[in-house]
Amino acid sequence: MTSRYAEVYESWRSNPEGFWMDQAAAIDWFTKPETAFDPDLGVYGGWYPDGVTNTCHNCLDRHVSGGRADQAALIYDSPITGSKRTISYRDMLAEVEAFAGALSDKGVGKGDRVVIYMPMVPEAIVAMLACARLGAVHSVVFGGFAASELATRIEDSQAKLIVSASCGIEPGRIVAYKPLLDAAIEHSRHKPDATIVLQREQHRCDLIEGRDFDYAELVAANAGRKVACTPVAATDPLYVLYTSGTTGQPKGVVRDNGGHMAALHWSMHAMYGVKPGEVFWAASDIGWVVGHSYIVYAPLLHGNTTIVFEGKPVGTPDAGTFWRVISEHKVAVLFTAPTAFRAIRKEDPEGSFIGKYDLSGYRALFLAGERADPDTIHWAERMLKVPVIDHWWQTETGWTIAGNPMGLGLLPVKYGSPAVPMPGYDVQVVDDAGHPVAAGTLGNIVVKLPLPPGCLPTLWNAENRFRDAYLAEFPGYYKTADAGFIDEDDYLFIMARTDDIINVAGHRLSTGGMEEAVSGHPDVVECAVIGIADSMKGQIPAGFIVINNSNGRSEEDVEKEVVKLVRDQIGPVAAFKNVMVVKRLPKTRSGKILRATMQKIADGEAWKMPATIDDPAILDEISEVLAKRGITGKSD
Ligand code: COA
Ligand code: AMP
Fold first, then answer.
1. Ligand 2 pocket, residue 284 CB under 6 Å
2. pLDDT > 60? residue 121
3. Which of 286, 393, 400, 427 best tests ligand 2's pocket when mutated (most atoms within 8 Å of CB)?
4. Contact, 232 vs 53, CB < 8 A?
5. Which ligand minimizes its atom distance to the CA of 251?
6. CATH class for domain 5-311+391-483?
7. CATH for 505-628?
8. Residue 636: what pLDDT?
């Protein structure tokens, strides 16, 4: 099939507002928008300013009344607990209405924030949709974050209520959520009115009388209750998702209702090439943007069946789990992070598990969240014999910036490139002064404003931070903070971040945030955290600490305590396990730590002595410490 991409992209370019009005027609509105875009709204304008809608209605009610009541909305498959459950659109709507009723009895209404801190269970999605139904704004916090990260999010969002669970389950250990939740509420200066806790049989927890309520009891008490969808403006917030910024204070990415639905709905058929009724699986977590967009909202908006998978690509129980899920639930398209495939390949390099399952209905693998290395793509293509499609996006955009659109007909693949920009995105590469660079030249990747529907209109309660972080450096453009180039065929190549964000197993983390935690240790005088290459996780953090050893403590003890500190303050997901005591940190004469040079040394890459270095001998000291730890190039 010849690709329609060029024609569709051009139809957007020649008439952006007409293009997005056409996409809005796929959504149900209480009041249909007559205007596609208002440039005077918010920081850079807003989509469908006069539209009134409800996202939960579009995810559930309209499918129930439109003939999909008995279709599975969601299949929960949890190899880690040995359980499975299929929930039809009809039953999902009933549970969401019951839970929305319970939330509204607790005083949650339009515009109120609700923090959701839950593992990968259907009730988490019920909670998200119940908030959407009431016009409340959810903020989901990933279960691998520690109490203080949760506290920051409770405080910043001023959450009225928290929905949580008694535990999450990781291979070989139960993660008790309640102590983390209680500690977070204690740390937060803002206190929620109530918490609702899903008791899981693997580990029940005590509830505090008068503050904590049992999820199942509330749903049972409200069974059969009808709760109407609250009309919200298209531009009202649907959710806030906190993501790593350059400091320990995360950024609250705001998502609106109308533009988000129009963009995600379009992406399901144009980008992923699925038809309503088919089974779509995003093997991610609802704590990340991929989970928000492609486990919850997009598949349900589009009338697909979504898979809620509670497990890991390997070890639950083996490297064949993904193929079992695809075959058992007839998954048409799988979307995950490259790291999951690197993990599977390491366990099963010959793909011996693949042949055990019938994958005849499976059509494509989409990868995102981190750079998809060509080696992994080649392996997946060879093993699965389906197109393997890299696509590039960010928490901020909520959907693909650049990709190879399967639904429009695939373009030729260039390994190492996520292909071409999607309609809505005018992607350019500029130098530090903001001037466009020639094809093939590395520079800052920027997107001409306005951003398309679905992208963040602002940061939660931080409009100035939004302007400063994203719009100030290149006026008229959104700064992606990714560096890369566009080749002569308009294919984009994403090479690196321009800030201190690192990508660990597809999880976005801030080295600045880790440095804040490390420097909290009383014996640490100075520190630097960098991301170093890792053949499985893409990157892992490495900390260099200068310690005050006047109190005679051993270096090993301090290193161990620093590892624990980051685990306790940021969470296990930081995978912060490498800490090295060094005598001094390499700096420029003006005192700036030479993190980029340290990273090149650690990764075994070519590096040049920075002209402004204060004392070149320090780099030799760093090399020696790294060599002693065996970190001299890509580690295993
Ligand atoms: N709750 C509590 N702890 C969690 C957690 C959660 N939801 N998710 C991860 N963790 C913990 C892990 O148990 C691990 O703890 P440990 O240090 O005690 O071993 C730590 O955080 C690091 O986790 P992770 O980075 O996931 O590494 P892993 O070795 O457990 O698993 C992979 C490696 C590749 C299997 C795993 O990272 C994976 O499945 N990645 C898919 C990527 C993904 O979903 N990305 C989202 C964007 S698309
Ligand atoms: P997150 O906000 O967690 O989705 O992380 C976004 C960042 O991950 C981007 O800015 C990129 O640095 C990186 N990223 C995501 N997808 C890709 C991709 N397909 N190729 C290269 N980098 C990617």
1. no
2. yes
3. 393
4. yes
5. 2
6. alpha beta
7. 3.30.300.30
8. 41
